[in-house]
Amino acid sequence: DADVTQTPRNRITKTGKRIMLECSQTKGHDRMYWYRQDPGLGLRLIYYSFDVKDINKGEISDGYSVSRQAQAKFSLSLESAIPNQTALYFCATSDTEHSNQPQHFGDGTRLSIL
Amino acid sequence: KQEVTQIPAALSVPEGENLVLNCSFTDSAIYNLQWFRQDPGKGLTSLLLIQSSQREQTSGRLNASLDKSSGRSTLYIAASQPGDSATYLCAVNQAGTALIFGKGTTLSVSS
User: Fold this and answer.
1) B43: Cβ–Cβ under 8 A, 6 or more apart, which residues?
2) d(CA A75, CA A12)
3) How far apart are CA A95 and CA B96, in angstroms?
4) pLDDT of A21-44, one tens digit each?
5) Which among A29, A43, A54 is the top mutation candidate for probing chain B, defined by the most B β-carbons within 10 Å of its own β-carbon?
């Protein structure tokens, strides 16, 4: 089983709909991140969380919200989806105790907004 | 603001060639630098991580170097194979928080 699991893997929806992307991890890491990847733009940070009660905005947080329900779960919501939010979304985790260690990524969620 | 640049954006080589991918960053105050591989439509696989105090890391045919003072890292791939075809991403970690990514180099190795 994957250490970082994202659901759904693919989603097609319409403009104006509310969407939630889920991320769960079994690595026991306390830090979790959401990134989006657009063709030609690389990955950009949306939100990150260092603990259950800690939420921080990243470079491109507008139009998104997150919830850290438990140490192992970090969900990303699009309250009213718009076409330019079509992208590949990645969740990642890292460990505070060994903060100079690699980040671990899920397989991504491909989201299309029509 | 930290910016990460990868050159070239795309590279095509015949099988067996040794090659170098380049990554540069504007702020040398980094925690570490990580190289990833991404296959089309897939997630990111971590290849090598170099701590700020290190000069290089090696894993099999891969060698990554880091020169913090000049803001540069290179990923050296020896004896390239068609299975090495993928996009390679460089990312820097500042203050132990989130990663800042370059746009990647797409490598194609022909047999």
Assistant:
1) A90, A105, A106, A107, A108
2) 18
3) 10
4) 999 999 899 999 999 999 878 899
5) A43
